[in-house]
Amino acid sequence: MPLVVLIGGARSGKSRLAVRLAAAQTSPVRLIATAVAQDAEMAERIAEHRRRRPSSWQTVEEPLRLREAIDEAGGDTCLVIDCLTLWTANALERFGAAEAETFAAAAAAAASDRRALTVAVTNEVGLGVVPDNPIGRSYRDLLGRVNAVWADAADHVLLVVAGRALALEKAGSILEGLR
Question: What is the CATH code for 3-177?
Answer without folding.
Answer: 3.40.50.300
